[in-house]
Amino acid sequence: MKRIIFAIICAVLTGHFAYADTPPAPPPAPRISIFSTTTDWQALTGLPLNEYRGVFSPDSKYVGSRGIVLYYLDAFPCYGLGDGVRVWMGPNGKYDGELRIACVYAPDAIMFSYRNAARDADDARNTGMLTCPVAADGRTLNIDMSKCTRGKDWDEYR
Asked: Are 98 and 89 in contact (CB under 8 A)?
């Protein structure tokens, strides 16, 4: 019996000392998902989603001389729909793209990431955030850009 206990103790100590110089495994990196639109929010909340389209009233203080690119920032109760989250507005009143979002109900305000750029500019780093009040008319969201407020620039979030 003593030999069995001695053998077990030796096995445990041998195993312990064999891995004593092995550094501990690093903690797993947190997993971040930015694809919230892939979640079935209608099933999760039990609330029906409806499609809304944005109609803009541009304001020269935001559009500038080259135009402005707006990217819709997902926020409950709304989520962007595929290619309907990028809109360019030019100083001449022309548009490229449209705002299409799915919402549980019409929002009172929506947020955009923005930057001033020409129509065909690439998707470079944006400047910051705009928060715009919304006036809903059925499935149309009227966005008067003169009533938008500029938030912090992205560099100020650090």
From this structure: no
